[in-house]
Design brief:
Layout lengths: L27 H17 L2 H20 L2 H13 L25 E4 L9 H8 L1 E4 L3 H12 L1 H18 L7 H12 E5 L2 H8 L3 H7 L8 E4 L2 H6 L8 E6 L9 H11 L2 H4 L5 E4 L39
Parallel strand pairs: 1-2, 3-5
Antiparallel strand pairs: 3-4, 5-6
Helix pairs in contact: 1-2, 1-5, 2-3, 2-5, 4-6, 5-6, 6-7, 6-11
C-alpha cells in the first residue's frame, strides 16, 4: 500500500492505487517513479493529471540543474500550453512520415478525449495525447511512457503504420497482435545463454533449480503494463511474455536499453512472436514459496513444452 496517504478517495476509480505494495521486488525498479505519482493521483483524484505533473516536475528539475533561466521560463510556458485537455497542446497532427524525434513527449488526457470510432493507437500517434482512465492499468501504462518513452513511441508508430496499411479490422493481424502482447505483457530479459536455452526448452527445473545461481546474472525489466497491474494482487500462474535483450546492451543503462528497443522492434521480427513464457513468480527471490523444488513441479503452471506435430499432407500421392 502506498505510504502516508489519507486523502478522501471515495468514489474515485483510481483509489486502488493505494493498494500497490512498492516493497515487492517486482515493483522495486518502478518505485522511485511510481510511488510519488500514485500519491499525487490519489490526492488530485486524477491519474492523467498526476502523470502530467510528473513531466512538469522532471522539466523543472532539469531546468534548475542547468541554471538556465530561459529554460525555466520555457518549462512554465510548456506547462501552461500542455494543460490537461488543452487542444492547443498538439496543434499539428502526426502522419506516418513524422519521426519520433519531432515529438518530444506525450501528454495524458481523460479517456473522454478519444473520439468515438477512432482507434486508441491512431489517436495517440496523431495527437501525442494518451487517453487515460483512473485505475491501475492506465496508471502503469503512463509510468512506462515516462520510463521508456522511445520504446513506447516506437510501439505506437508501428501500430499506426499497421492501421494505415490494413485499417481497423475485426482481427488485428500478426504484427498488431505481437505489438499488443509486447505493450501489455512483456518482460525484457538480459541473461546468459544457458539460462535462455533452458527457458526456451521450458525445462523449468533446470532453469530455476539447477541454474539458480546464474540468476544473479539475469536482469529483468517488467515492461508490460497489464502484467504490472496483475502483480498488484499476485498469484502463482501470472505468466509474462519474455523478449530477449541483446547481450551487448547494458540492461542497467535504461537510456541505452530504450534506444536499443527502438532499433530492435521491427515488424518482420514481431510477426514471428519472438516471445517465451515465464511464470514470473518463479523468479528466484521474488516469492518465498519458490525456495522449494516442489514449487516448480506444479505442471498446471510450469507446463512442459509441447511437441509440434506436423499435420499430414492432404495432397494425393503422385
Amino acid at each position: 500500500m502506498a505510504r502516508g496517504l489519507s486523502p478522501n478517495t471515495e468514489g474515485f476509480a483510481g483509489a486502488v492505487l493505494a493498494e500497490i505494495d512498492w516493497a515487492q521486488p517486482w515493483f522495486a525498479p518502478w518505485r522511485e517513479l511510481g510511488e510519488a505519482t500514485a500519491q499525487r493521483a490519489l490526492q488530485q483524484q486524477s491519474v492523467a493529471e498526476a502523470l502530467n505533473e510528473r513531466t512538469y516536475t522532471a522539466k523543472r528539475e532539469a531546468s534548475a540543474g542547468s541554471g538556465d533561466i530561459a529554460s525555466a521560463a520555457s518549462v512554465n510556458t510548456t506547462r501552461a500550453g500542455l494543460a490537461l485537455g488543452d487542444a492547443k497542446a498538439n496543434p499539428v497532427e502526426r502522419t506516418v512520415g513524422t519521426s519520433n524525434e519531432q515529438i518530444k513527449e506525450v501528454t495524458f488526457v481523460p479517456q473522454s478525449a478519444l473520439p468515438e470510432g477512432q482507434a486508441y493507437e491512431d489517436f495517440i500517434f496523431k495527437t501525442a495525447q494518451v487517453p487515460t482512465r483512473d485505475g491501475l492499468h492506465d496508471f502503469f501504462n503512463g509510468l512506462c511512457w515516462h520510463r521508456f518513452p522511445l520504446a513506447k513511441r516506437r510501439l505506437n508508430q508501428l501500430q499506426a503504420a499497421e492501421i494505415e496499411a490494413q485499417g481497423v479490422r475485426d482481427t488485428r493481424g500478426p504484427v498488431r497482435d505481437a505489438l499488443t502482447l509486447f505493450d501489455e505483457n512483456v518482460v525484457l530479459m538480459h541473461a546468459p545463454d544457458e539460462v535462455w536455452a533452458a527457458l526456451q526448452a521450458r525445462d523449468w527445473l533446470r532453469l530455476f533449480v539447477d541454474l539458480r545461481a546464474q540468476w544473479q546474472q539475469v536482469h529483468l525489466v517488467l515492461f508490460g503494463h497489464a502484467l504490472l497491474e496483475k502483480l498488484v494482487m499476485p498469484y502463482k500462474s501470472i505468466t509474462a511474455h519474455v523478449y530477449r535483450v541483446d547481450s551487448e546492451v547494458n540492461p542497467h543503462d535504461e537510456a541505452w536499453l530504450d534506444a536499443w528497443l527502438v532499433q530492435d522492434l521491427q515488424s518482420a521480427k514481431l510477426a514471428t512472436k519472438p516471445y517465451e513464457p515465464l511464470p514470473v513468480l518463479g523468479v528466484p527471490g521474488w516469492w518465498s514459496a519458490n525456495a522449494e523444488r516442489a514449487y516448480y513441479e506444479d505442471a498446471n503452471v510450469f507446463r512442459p513444452k509441447r511437441d509440434v506435430v506436423a499435420k499430414p499432407s492432404t495432397q494425393s500421392a503422385k
